[in-house]
Amino acid sequence: MPTAEQVRTALKDVNDPELHLSIIDLGLIYGVEVEGEKSEHVTVTMTLTSPMCPVGPQFRKDVMDKVAGMEGVETAKVDITFSPPWDPKEMASDDVKLMLGIW
Hints:
Layout lengths: L3 H8 L11 H4 L2 E7 L5 E6 L9 H13 L6 E6 L7 H4 L2 H7 L3
Parallel strand pairs: 2-3
Antiparallel strand pairs: 1-2
C-alpha cells in the first residue's frame, strides 16, 4: 500500500521523453493523492514542459503505467494541468537548473 511519498519516489524513474530528466526533478509533478483504506486509488496531478508537447499522451501513459504497477494500487489516474504553467526557474531542482544552464 503506497504512500504519496512512495509514489513520488517511484516516479523518479520516469523521465521526460524530450529532456531525459526525471519528472520529479523537473518539477512536473504538482501533487499525489492516495485514497482508500488500503491506499488503492492514486491520482497524480502533473504538467508538461509546454501545452503543445508532442509526446504528452505517451508521457501521461508512462506515469499512469508506473503508478498502476505499484503494489497495492487498484486504480491510477493522471490529471494534466497547465495552472500554474511550468517554470523551470521556480519548479526544477537545483541539479536540473544547473544541467539546463538556468542559473
